[in-house]
Structure formats: structure tokens, C-alpha cells
Amino acid sequence: MIEGFSWEWDAVSLLEAAFVGGSRNAFILGKKQDLVSIRLSFFTVGIDRIRNGGKNMSVIQALIISIWVALIQARFFGYAGLNLRFSPLMTSLFVGVVLGDVAQGVTVGAAIQLISMGQIAPGGQMATEPAVSGTVATAVAILGNLEPTAAVAIAIPVGILGSYLYTLKIIVNSFVTKYIDRVVNNLEDKKFTFAIGLLPTLLTMLTHVPVLFIALYFGADSIANVVTQLEGTVVFHILDVVASALAAVGIAILIRIIGQKTDMFFFFLAFFLTIILKDLGITMVTWAVLGIVTAGIYTMIMINAKEAA
């Protein structure tokens, strides 16, 4: 072990090492006493930047995150992909894993999740795209070491832009519907998987990956630096207040959607129990398990009551 050096290995670091090792000395120019190494691989651009404690994003990291979000938007994962699209918490978790800060990723994702609760997507279209907003905002928060409230303020405009990107995806996919109809009508089994699954996925990646990659690789650092400079100013205080209010709005929308008075009883019971028993140190995972068990018991009671009637 060389004194003064510390090594941090993760999946991304291993990928970077593989790419860099394969192209480190691709060409040697000039005289022997004045050698210049040129690295050809596109993937090494930005990888050798000083990480500053993991605060810079490499090309590999930006590409992995961009592809992940594109696959979610393409519903590549089926029904799971639909849930991933509406859950910034899961997307933020993935960003945290890639950037090497899972705790910060989950914390920011939970904050963004509050403002997206209760949102609906009539016709599949949302006012703000949770997956896109969660991705960019979490990356900015990790790179700039920002508070979750600041990340929420960033997530709103990014999510709105993401909704336009999703609209573009729908428009592009509409051009291949005639081809899909022909494949289905002619019962061309060999082309069915490509027409229904692979082709829309490829088109979604075409519309999302370049935009997200540029936003993450070239924009995340810049946004993080700007927000860091604003920290402690009046502007930052306003963003904190707005972010807190948006979280309250998200909870209010969720309460309104619950609707039924009997269900509201469980909501308020859980809310006040978490406050009263806060000193016991019960984790959110434990509360979630208790909620699932309670919901299961209540469902069985209601089913038995209907059968008895």
C-alpha cells in the first residue's frame, strides 16, 4: 500500500479502469525524449478528472444513468418500469449507487417522492416527469453536497422539461405504428417482438439518452456549482420554503385521492403513531411492514364480512 493513497473500488471504477487500461497509450507522438500519450477511447473523456471526493461525474456514470432512465421511460421493465417511472425514490437510489453515495441518493429521492405522491397521468402524460427530475436532481445534490430541499427545487423545472421529452418520445413512436399494425395483422410472429418491444425501446433511447447524457455530464456539475454559490443567500431560503410547501401539497393531494373516510382513519393513525413513538427509533421499513400487515388484516376482515352478508 503506497502511503498517502487510498483506493475506492466500485462497479463504475472497475469499468473505467478497463476502458482506460485498454486505450491509455494508443499512440506515441514525437521524439523518444518527448513522448505524448493520446487516449483515443471516447469513454476516457472526463474519467481522469479529479474526483474531489467523488464530486465529479465521469462519462461512464452519465451514460449508465442515461440508459437506465431511457429504459424506464420505454417501459422496458414492464409493469415494474411503470412503477419506476412514477417513483423518484427508486431512480434516485440507482443514481446513488452509480455515483457512490447511496445514502444521499435515497435521502434526496425521498424528498422528491413527497411532491410526486398523488400525481396522475391522464393519457400517460404528466405535468412533470418523476424519473427524469429525480435523476438530475439527485445527481446535482450528490455532486454539490446539497440539502434535499435544494434538490426538490431543482427537480421541479427539470421534471417539466422531462415531460416535453416524454411527449417527443410519444411523437417519434407514433411514426412506427403503421409498421406495428402491419406486423400484427399479417401475424408475422418473427417480427412481433421487434415491432412491439425492441423498436419502441430503441426509439425511446434515441430521444432520451443523448439529452439526459448532456444534462448529466455537462450540466450537473455546473448546476451544482451554481446552487452551492447560492447557499445561504435569500434565493436559497426562498427555494427551501417553496420545496417544503411542495412536499405539503403532495401529501394533501394524496389525502384527497384516498377519499374514503374509513381509509383516512388509517392514514392519520399512522401519522400520529410515527410522531408519538418517535423516541423509540422505529425505522421506516418497520412502519412499512406494519402497514402492509394491517392492510392485509383489514382486507381479510372486509372480505369475510361481505361473504357473511
From TrEMBL:
BP terms from Gene Ontology: phosphoenolpyruvate-dependent sugar phosphotransferase system
Protein's cellular compartments: Cell membrane
Keyword Transmembrane helix attributed: yes
Protein's UniProt keywords contain Membrane: yes
A Pfam family assignment: EII-Sor
GO CC terms, sorted: plasma membrane
Name of the protein in question: PTS sugar transporter subunit IIC
Classification via PROSITE patterns: PTS_EIIC_TYPE_4
Membrane topology (UniProt): Multi-pass membrane protein
Xref: InterPro entries: PTS_IIC_man (IPR004700)
Keywords: Cell membrane, Membrane, Phosphotransferase system, Sugar transport, Transmembrane, Transmembrane helix, Transport
